[in-house]
Specification:
Structural class: alpha/beta
Radius of gyration: 23 Å
CATH superfamily of the largest domain: Aldehyde Dehydrogenase, Chain A, domain 1
CATH topology of the largest domain: Aldehyde Dehydrogenase, Chain A, domain 1
Number of helices: 16
Oligomer: single chain
Largest sheet: 7 strands, mixed
CATH class of the largest domain: Alpha Beta
Amino acid sequence: MSTAVTITESVSVPEGEGRPIPDAATREIIGYAPVHTLADLDRAVSAAEAAQPAWAALGHAERSRILNEIADDIEAHAEELARLLSREQGKPLNGPNARFEVGACALWLRTAADTPLEPEVVFEHEGSRAEVHYDPLGVVGAIGPWNWPMMISVWQIGPSLRMGNTVVAKPSEYTPLSVLALIEVFNRHLPEGVLTGISGDREVGAAIAGHPGFAKIMFTGSTATGRKIVESSAHNLARLTLELGGNDAGIVLPGTDVAAIAEGLFWGIFINTGQTCAALKRLYVHESQYEDVVQALAGLAAAMPMGNGLSEDNVLGPLQNEKQFDIVRDLVDDARARGARIVTGGRPATELGPLFYETTIVADIEDGAPLVDEEQFGPVVPVIKYTDIDDALARANASSQGLGASVWANDPEDAIAVAARVQAGTVWINQHGAINPHVPFGGIKASGYGQEFGVAGLKAVAAPKVIQR
């Protein structure tokens, strides 16, 4: 009797034909990712170009119906997808992690499918009328990251398909299997050529940015890579949405109820073990409550279970790859050498696995230290003391990055007044990193440009056309 092939098995190629992909926690090989070439990319783009007119001709209602059908299928395979994601990326099944991410895929896809985008009347007077309509762009190149590989892929793919584009998607070389599995679910419902996954190396990713077949490039990743994409895409003027790195600041105003905000602060910092672009990366606390906040975070850090993601008990996992592990370790070692106080953590947790690092709170540190000035992207946070809110704002705004930020206070109006002075694409009040599929999201400064989600996200993957009479 034959056994049905799972989605996970269907995207892994035989040993010897692909690149080995390790379990992030154990480093055991869990599968082999296909290694696509530049010729494969050309074929995918040609297929997408051929499929796009018919896909656009289906109209919004039919495309939305298909996308909702795909969301149903994602939910039907949610546990299988979450387990693959947990092993490949490292995030635990529970908490705001793997099961959460798969659920977010379905939610964001449904929102992209169901958000109305009607023609906009921008002028009407004495029989003259001008309307803005939104047409497909053509083929979209979607380049995804390794930290939230499935969810961010849906952020790119869902709106693009809804607006009548076709998509060629390249997952990170660190987490290809989970994204290819997601694309496998999509392609059970889509016409051939509408969505293709390309699992290649950095050469393939670089070729996407400069490929003349793409009308739009969407990229989530580092600022350095984002700059290269801008350069590569210049000759064919592909439109860009770039969600790049962040060094998000949080500011705790004096008099804030520390017990009321402690858990929100913790998860704003340590969601996905700190491996989130819009996580809280540096925390400024007024001197009157500095030690209270430091100790509250340290207590939570010591209590949150870390370990293999497949264990139902854990909520924090490993660093996803060796390169990121080395960055986190070196930043903490540098802070220690500078005289910073390691309140809790501060060392590799090798008893759990090769790439685990203890949840770490660093106090008595100042701007100018690499741990404060650079994006650590891991389970460590520097807590910086301030005495004057103008000084705290100046330091928060000094970063070249501006993805997100947060202000914490008992009085929301006080927080809003400070938030108005913070330079970031999103400023949260008494929370950090809370995203909503209806609310635009994007960065400023070196954190990129362009917005995703909701109506703004649909417009970003469409060509505005004015019809005037």
